[in-house]
Specification:
Blueprint: E1 2-7, H1 11-22, E2 27-33, H2 36-46, E3 50-53, H3 62-72, E4 77-81, H4 86-97, E5 102-105, H5 115-129, E6 162-167, H6 171-179, E7 190-194, H7 201-211, E8 215-218, E9 229-232, E10 238-244, E11 247-253, H8 265-275, E12 280-284, H9 293-301, E13 305-309, H10 319-325, E14 331-333, H11 335-345
Parallel strand pairs: 1-2, 1-3, 3-4, 4-5, 6-7, 6-12, 7-9, 8-9, 12-13, 13-14
Antiparallel strand pairs: 10-11
Length: 348
């Protein structure tokens, strides 16, 4: 039985969440809090298996509550946000930085056409996150201790021209760890597909751009890829690459979903394999499901360099694990070593 604490200041939303969660045979809502301060107290007293965390609350917001819980009695936390404005997005991603595992959209009511889809996303996310082992976070640093070893990178003579990354649950934390360590002078453009609820990509980009030396933006149709720039796929849109006489260009597509995803990491990696082949680096980070594995295999077969985040440092080992099982991976790298690994790969 998964014991859940709901932290939510809206009575209506709290009742909806409780009804949705209690309808699952393996879920039990053991408590409800109407603000972050009460949530911290109930987390300590009830010792739930997972907490759903609202963001904008009186007395103490979701960021402060997450920081307090993760620095004293760590519990898997799923942020449930309405993503209504820039301030809420800012708090949401600060909560992710402090150790919250995932962010999902607040559920719609039963009469809404998106109700069933939203409910399923929430249930699947909570069920997956409840089994994650979380660790205590430093209140100031917001990160855990790095491993002492350094994963060596193989030497390559090929002139790489692009890095393509796919990730899902646990991806924002992984991207922050990598991109905040890479210098602004990193010589390649980086293109990214991150699965995230609609409406949150703007906040993700703003948060990453504020903590990372490289320039980070939402990909725009026809943009020329520039070194030291990071391009993240927009909502509900495939991010692919095309080649012109000037270099690599962003191509955005509303082609059908691949699996259940648009943007899809597989769509990105397959296009990279097609236009860059052995001049590309492909990466899969933490994430549920199998999106990106087929694309990484295509790049591997095109002689591009492929690697995945290791199981020890990933929140969820779905996407990297499937790629490993398919034989699509050249190397497996711990998260804290990925930035150094990438820099070693592109050294001339």
């Amino acid at each position: 039985m998964i014991r859940i604490l709901i932290v939510e200041d809206s009575i209506v939303v709290g009742m909806l969440l409780k009804a949705m969660l209690n309808s699952e045979k393996d879920f039990e809502v053991v408590g409800q809090a109407c603000n972050g301060e009460e949530g911290v107290r109930l987390a300590r007293e009830l010792k739930p298996d997972l907490i759903t965390m609202d963001i904008r609350m009186p007395v103490m917001d979701g960021f402060e509550a997450t920081r307090e819980i993760m620095s004293t009695n760590p519990v898997p936390i799923v942020v449930i946000s309405s993503s209504v404005d820039a301030e809420e997005l800012r708090i949401t991603f600060r909560a992710i930085e402090m150790g919250a595992l995932a962010v999902i959209e607040k559920p719609f009511g039963p009469k809404h056409p998106e109700y069933d889809k939203g409910r399923r996303v929430m249930i699947d996310t909570i069920r997956a996150m409840a089994s994650i082992r979380v660790v205590m976070r430093d209140r100031k640093a917001g990160r855990t201790r790095s491993p002492e070893f350094i994963q060596p990178a193989p030497l390559h003579d090929k002139p790489y021209e692009v890095v393509a990354i796919g990730c899902s649950t646990g991806g924002p934390q992984a991207l922050k760890a990598i991109l905040s360590t890479l210098p602004a002078s990193f010589p390649l453009p980086i293109v990214i597909v991150q699965h995230i609820s609609a409406g949150f990509v703007t906040g993700l980009v703003s948060w990453l751009d504020s903590v990372c030396p490289m320039h980070i933006e939402i990909a725009k149709q026809g943009s020329l890829l520039l070194p030291g720039h990071v391009y993240i796929a927009p909502d509900k849109t495939h991010l692919e690459l095309r080649r012109s006489h000037t270099g690599l260009l962003v191509h955005l597509s509303h082609a059908p979903l691949i699996g259940q995803f648009r943007p899809s990491a597989t769509a990105l990696l397959q296009s990279v394999a097609s236009v860059s082949s052995d001049r590309a680096i492909g990466v899969l980070l933490s994430g549920m499901g199998d999106d990106g594995a087929t694309g990484l295999l295509a790049l591997h077969q095109s002689k591009g360099h492929t690697f995945v985040q290791d199981k020890q440092s990933a929140v969820i080992y779905g996407m990297p694990g499937v790629a490993l099982d398919m034989g699509a991976v050249d190397e497996v790298v711990n998260l804290d070593q990925i930035a150094m690994y990438m820099q070693n790969l592109v050294k001339s």
